[in-house]
Amino acid sequence: MSKIIYDVIQRFEVEDGVPRLISTNIQVIEGGEDLMSLAISLLTQLGFYDKFEENRTSQYIGYRLKNPVKGSKRYQLILAQRKEGLCISIPINSFESELLELYAGTSYYKTIDVYGDPDYETIKYITLARLWILSSKEDVFLSNLSPHYAEMFKGDITGKFCLNYYAEGEEGNISWKEIILFPPEEFDIKALGDSSSYLLVQEDKLFPYAWQVSISSSEVLEEFLGHFAKILMEAQ
Known about the structure:
four-stranded mixed sheet; about 240 residues
C-alpha cells in the first residue's frame, strides 16, 4: 500500500484568549507516495527481492544476499530516510567505476626508505568531489561546464581527473618540469554547472565500506535505483 504525505498549514486568530481557525492549506507531498515506499516498490518491480533479503531497523533498511559467499554478509544496498531526502548507500566496489571523481595534490611531504637513502618528496592527494551523472542529463551536465572542466573531461562523465597541472620551461641547457599544487579551498563545485544533472557521492559514516547519495526527487530515485539495482543483481 502506498503512503500519502500531507503538508498541513492552519492559521488561527486569537481574540480574548479564544483561538478561531481562519484558514487551512493542505498540500500533497511527493505526488502521494513517499520516497522510501517508492524505492521499495521499484525494487520489487525489478525482481530485487528474488536475490536479496530485507532487514529493517529503526534507522535503515539493509539488503544482503539470500545465499552469500561464506563470510560475506555485508549489505549490498542500504536505504535510510532523512529529513532532506532518501539516502542510498552502495558498496564502493560496485559504485566507483560509475563515477566522475576529481582529486588534487595538496602538499609535498618527505619520506626516507628503510635503507637510509636520501629523502624524496611525495605528493599527498585528496578527493575533492565524487559525482554520479544522471544518464538522462549527460548533455545538460556537459553543456553547463565551465571551459576549464569542459576541456579536461572532453565528454567523459566517468573516471578520475586530477586538477593539478605541470609548468615546464628551459633555462640554458636545463629543462625543468614542476607540478602546480591545487589548494582544496579553491575548488568550487558550482563551476560544474547544473546541480540537477548529478548526485554528490559521499562516504557513509555508518557503513565505511559503502558510499552514499541523498535523493529528494522521485524521478531521480527511479533513474538511480533502476541503474544500480541491475548492477547489483548482475554482479551476484
